[in-house]
Amino acid sequence: MDQLPIFLTIKDRKCVIVGGGNIALRKAELLLLAGANLHVVATQVGEGLQKLCDDHAALVETKDYDASALKDAALVIAATDNQVLNRQVSLDAKELNIPVNVVDQPALCSFIMPAIVDRSPVIVAISSGGASPVLTRKIKELIETFLPERISALAKLLGSYRERVKNKLAKPADRARFWENILDSKVSELVYSSNDKAAAELIEQQLTDPNCSEAISGEVYLVGAGPGDPDLLTLRALRLMHKADVVLYDRLVSAEIMAKLRRDAQKIHVGKEQANHSVEQETINQMLVRFARDGKKVLRLKGGDPFIFGRGGEELETLTEAGVPFQIVPGITAASGCAAYAGIPLTHRDYAQSVRFVTGHTKEGAVALDWETLAKEQQTLVFYMGLSGLSEICKQLIDNGMEQSMPIALIQQGTTATQKVLVGDLSNMPMLAESKKVQAPTIIIVGRVVELQKKLSWFNV
Fold first, then answer.
1. Same domain for 234 and 163?
2. Residue 406 is labelled as binding a ligand
3. Are residues 77 and 107 in the same domain?
4. Is 170 annotated as belonging to a binding site?
5. Beta strands at 407-412 and 442-446: parallel, antiparallel or unpaired
6. Contacting residues for 109 by C-beta, under 8 A, at least 6 apart
7. Do strands 272-273 and 276-277 pair parallel, antiparallel, or not at all (unpaired)?
8. What letter does residue 213 receive in the DSSP assignment?
9. Is 304 annotated as belonging to a binding site?
10. Count: domains in the chain
């Protein structure tokens, strides 16, 4: 380790920036966020920096630099394009034992400005020691992705109880165990869901009764896994996937997404397909209740979005009746994801002013739908689970007035590396699908927008 990572308090302390351009502006913004008493020294000061200094009552001296500008400074930043001047600022600061940073010149620095993820009071600083600022920025992007936005609220809530916990629990080990239990409980998720009041109540319960069962009560996470590509998972979905003790998952959840679960989580397949329900819905509902009452964090992982042909509402009704708390995380539904990856816009001013999501499940050999309405022009139809009823779907649309030449697309395993897209019309698609031996899962898209597929295709081309 070539540098010691530290957090420096500069609130109300003199901090000097030598330079007046855009780089100086960015550094000034950061120093002001930390409460610095900012002094800018430059022969010319840009409009943006001048306005920032005016807004924050910062001192601007439009003059040539000399060492007297550093008197009583807590730190110095040189941000000019004059290499000789930058070197002089560095020498002067080091002579006065003042921490100095010279932008993009690590050899002249006594400290390096890290990349920062700011969720104050939680702050993450990242540095490559000046070796690769771009790599540092990429690492910052990853942390920004996974660090919850409301972790700042969580830190403030925990901080508000720090003294009370210290007074109640004299031993450091006892205090550490208390906070570990709090962070392993529902407190974090309550805050992340903007339910700060319930989170505070739970901490109060633990302060007065450390054996309170509420802290270890279970919860169900109803999460949409999206159409298959793991990159389409939401940030909240990923976070809850990493927390779950038990996972009840459907057959449409891809192996790549399953690989992102906790390795030690109990995984139970409860998938369904037509005429083959590995676990009945009522049994699934009761499993969710039982695991949650056992104090488990239960992930109900569904392909696509749980509220679009996913029976998520039925499961939540059971949880509500049983008094089991839950969270809902929407996912990208198959219609949206598969259409986008196939290059088919579901609406377009020139082709379709509306879109309909329709279940294509057959019932006793027929698809019971309002075919006359579905056959109207200027709309896009998306059929879920329609492969087995494809011939009936095409026939009914034609019989109810839709042109035989109406474009139709059949997307197999959409958004995945094995995605296949077949494009035809209502008259030939059943035969085309049979000849290509198409297999589920599939999405069927009917409408003029399909004409754009060849032009807009981008994935796996």
1. no
2. no
3. yes
4. no
5. antiparallel
6. 90, 100, 101, 102, 130
7. antiparallel
8. G
9. yes
10. 4
With CA atoms as reference, report the closest residue to 397 among 369, 433, 365, 421: 369
- Would strands 59-62 and 37-42 be described as parallel, antiparallel, or unpaired? parallel
Domain span at residue 246?
219-329
Residue 276 is predicted with a pLDDT of: 56
Structural contact between residues 228 and 300, judged by C-beta atoms closer than 8 angstroms: no
Q: Is 345 one of the annotated binding-site residues?
A: no
Which residue do the tokens 């896009």 mark?
380
Q: Judge whether 52 lies within some domain.
A: yes
Catalytic residue list contains 272: yes
Per-residue confidence (pLDDT) for residue 274, from 0 to 100: 59
Return the H-helix or E-strand segment holding 195: none
Burial degree of 148 (CB within 10 A; 0-12, 13-18, 19+): middle
Instruction: State how far the alpha carbon of 141 is from the alpha carbons of 83, 122, 457, in Å.
Output: 31, 16, 29
What whole-number distance in Å separates Cα of residue 290 and Cα of residue 145? 33
CATH number for 100: 3.40.50.720
**Structure pTM?**
0.75
DSSP letter at 449 equals G
Closest to 450 measured CA to CA, from 397, 419, 407, 421? 407
User: What is the mean pLDDT, run by run of 10 residues, along the chain of 461 residues?
Assistant: 90 98 96 97 96 97 96 97 96 97 93 92 91 91 91 97 92 87 88 94 86 63 96 93 93 93 93 67 94 92 95 95 95 97 97 95 67 96 95 96 98 96 97 94 97 95 63
CATH of the domain at 250: 3.40.1010.10
Q: DSSP label at 298?
A: E
Spot the catalytic one: 140, 272, 395, 420. 272
How does strand 407-412 pair with strand 420-425? antiparallel
> Which tokens belong to 116?
């920062």
As a whole number of angstroms, the distance between CA 304 and CA 278 comes to: 19
257 is in an annotated binding site: no
Does residue 359 have a known ligand-binding role? no
For residue 159, give the amino acid letter: G
What DSSP letter does each residue of 338-372 carry, written as one string? HHHHHT--S-BTTTBS-EEEEE---BTTB--S-HH
Query: How high is the pLDDT of residue 243?
Result: 87
Strands 246-249, 297-302: parallel, antiparallel or unpaired by DSSP? parallel
Is 234 marked within a binding site? Answer: no
Query: Where is the domain boundary, 278, 300, 329?
Result: 329
**d(C-alpha 75, C-alpha 60), whole Å:** 16
pLDDT of residue 215: 44
pLDDT of 181 reads: 84
Question: Which of 250, 296, 297, 302 does the annotation list as catalytic?
Answer: 250
